[in-house]
Amino acid sequence: MKRKNEIVQLNIEAIGFQGISIARKEGLVYFVKGAVPGDKVNAQVRRKKKNHIECELAELLEPSPLRVKPQCGYFGICGGCSWQHLDYNEQLRWKKQHVLDAFQRIGKIEVAQFEDTLPSPEIFNYRNKMEFSFGNSRWLTSDEINSSNDISNKDFALGLHIPGRFDKVLDVERCHIQNEYGNDILKIIKSKAIDCNVTAYDSRANEGFLRNLIIRSTVASKEIMVILITNSVHNDEEQAYIDWYDNEFAKNDNKISVVGRAVNATRSPVATEKPIITKGNDYITENILGIDFKISPYSFFQTNSKQLNNFIAEIINRADLKPTDTVWDLYCGTGSISLPASKKCKEIIGIEMFEGSVEDARNNANSNGIVNANFICSDLHEKRIPELLSVLPKPDVIIIDPPRAGMHANLLNHLLEIGANRIVYVSCNPTTQARDCALLSEIYNVVSVKPVDMFPHTFHVEAIAVLEIRNPIHN
Ligand SMILES: C[S@@+](CC[C@H](N)C(=O)[O-])C[C@H]1O[C@@H](n2cnc3c(N)ncnc32)[C@H](O)[C@@H]1O
């Protein structure tokens, strides 16, 4: 057995479900963070788990030909894009492999057609939403620590939390996955804060003024929304900063369409107070497949707008909707699938438990003149859900896009009783998707699975599984 801190020479063979590289040697399985398949490494043992040994990459002895130079200077520190050093085609190949493994090993299901991962049209500058944090305890990089220069502004950072360290913030000058203009905004907001001598939030003491900066953007209308979250104003410097933000910053920048701010004086990292809008409307608008979606400061919207068009088009095409079809969209969120799908079917009923999303979905239906989409606010995992579903018009097609935990067994059993002709099961978690599809395969065949890359440089993957009933119950 290996001892803590022992160095082991390994050849990296694969990448596991959580995006961590794997090597096998002398009957043991090693997880090596930061390595890629094809690397020969010296790895340092950190923790021994039941079925594997967790290691750090201590020395890269021979780099894999699949490695590429990460664009981001914070790669390996920020934790956001842990695959930036892996060739993009390989990222796509491993995403497919993870979905395939889940269906074969967990679901143990035959899939007639397992397709390649749909690549994202852009692999940088693709995120339409970033939420940055201010912190009074800046994370110092090894370069800064090893440099002989004095370290400035140690008690002020605007950037991203270091993984596992809620109190430490990595100061970010440029984030390569956000809209390029967002990087200019980061700079302006930070340099003025330093000039005004205002403090960044101290999460341990629940003190300090500046807390979060949300930057959202849209592709179709090219709008930018900036929301600043602060603690309550306590002194003249803080008031001067707010005056600058509400007036000069908001009014002088023509590229920004919405400027707002909210106060969060609680210990909770999540702001709930509705922002005061000082410029523009309280939303920006994105267009997906001809439907306008209003996005308000805190509302949910998929973060890769360009790929979202392709993703939703794939879902709707695979649903193979007919003008006579009744469709259910379970876990419908703000209706980003239901509303474009409504154009292809007789009626669509969306069910979602979060009231704010149902409201957004209804408003988006109204403002787009859609009358055949109805939305119900309900918890799909409640016991009485079969009663609620049994009074709805019977579906020909069911679209399902559950959270990572997948579906509840009661709901799955009820779907087996309903027996819709076709189910399109969309998921961001192949493990629970495979488990649920295995249960549904009692009466369905899984005819195709298509992985989709919504999040380049991360191990996250979406997949669309199409299930067709073997013996139609009704027509
Ligand atoms: C992956 S998202 C689906 C997003 C949706 N397709 C959209 O376009 O906005 C999962 C959704 O399921 C909702 N949800 C989670 N648990 C639920 C439950 N028990 N019943 C109903 N909806 C639930 C979440 O609020 C979230 O909107």
The strands making up the biggest β-sheet line up spatially as: 7-22-23-21-20-17-18-19
User: Count of DSSP helices?
Assistant: 10
**CATH hierarchy class name of the largest domain:** Alpha Beta
Radius of gyration: 24 Å
Per CATH, the architecture of the largest domain is: 3-Layer(aba) Sandwich
**CATH domain topology of the largest domain:** Rossmann fold
Task: Give an overview in words.
By secondary structure, the protein is of the alpha/beta class. Helix 1 (88-107) packs parallel to helix 10 (430-440) and helix 3 runs antiparallel to helix 4. The protein is built from ten helices and 23 strands. Strand 17 (326-330), helix 6 (338-341) and strand 18 form a beta-alpha-beta unit. The termini are far apart. It folds into three domains: 7-67, OB fold (Dihydrolipoamide Acetyltransferase, E2P) (Beta Barrel); 89-123 and 305-469, Vaccinia Virus protein VP39 (Rossmann fold, 3-Layer(aba) Sandwich); 129-288, OB fold (Dihydrolipoamide Acetyltransferase, E2P) (Beta Barrel), CATH 2.40.50.1070. The longest helix has 20 residues, at 88-107. The model has no long low-confidence stretch (mean pLDDT 94). The strands form four sheets. It has an eight-stranded mixed β-sheet with strand order 7-22-23-21-20-17-18-19, sandwiched between helices. Strands 10-9-8-11-12-13-14 form a seven-stranded mixed β-sheet. Bound molecules: S-adenosylmethionine.
